[in-house]
Automatic annotation (TrEMBL):
Coiled coil residues, start to end: none
Protein name: Uncharacterized protein
Cross-referenced InterPro entries: GltS (IPR004445)
Gene Ontology CC terms: membrane
Chain ranges passing through the membrane: 7-29
Molecular function, one GO term: glutamate:sodium symporter activity
GO terms, biological process: L-glutamate transmembrane transport
Keywords associated with the record: Membrane, Transmembrane, Transmembrane helix
Amino acid sequence: MWLLLDLALPLLVLLLVQTIFVALINYFVTFKVLGKNYEAAVMSAGMCGIAIGSTQTL
């Protein structure tokens, strides 16, 4: 249990950095490349889910 507790802070930091990076990529690349409309927003939301969900399992 103590080993898991020691890993909690680094994992939270990595998740925070990953979330910020994904948000920036989605806004500045994905959303603008897809045309800045409703469909682009939906695709960007999907990209957020895939990018945050799949990276943690690698």
